[in-house]
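Q: what does this look like with heme C bound?
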Amino acid sequence: MAQAAAKFAAVLFTVAFCAPGVARAQSYPEFSELRLKLGRSVWIETCKPCHTTDIAGAPQVSDKAAWAPRLKQSRETLYEHALKGLFGPKGTEMPPRGGNAVLTDDQVKAAVDYMITIVSH
Ligand code: HEC
């Protein structure tokens, strides 16, 4: 009985948490370059929650108009803002390293590269 309950709970967990996560993760393009593969996994884990929903007022990857003025900056400036954080004029905040302090500079930069690539596609 306990075993059946545990199995039921495991199935529920899988359906509620894992399956939609996998489905969503797969809807973001994959690229063959290693750097973009690394960037994609960092991006999905750390950056996607803000950059695909309106919760923090972040520019959405689906919103080319929101990115157009930002993409006029150099890649170095975009890296710097992702690494050190940025407050926008409307009080919105890009937290340093997306709030994930364990990420290396290179992981953050790769995530920027991935996001820029999918925004520009
Ligand atoms: C907690 C929410 C949040 C997370 C997580 C987050 N961002 Fe952001 N990001 C923002 C917001 C908000 C802005 C817009 C800031 C502004 O200009 O007002 C932004 C802007 C940016 C910009 C544009 C900066 C510019 O110069 O215009 C880049 C690049 C960026 N984020 C990269 C990333 C990367 C890479 C990650 C993951 C490592 C990430 N973000 C995770 C909220 C987030």
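Residues 46-47, 49-51, 56-59, 70, 73, 78, 81-82, 86, 88, 92-95, 97-99, 108, 111-112, 115 surround heme C (CB under 6 Å). The mean pLDDT is 87.
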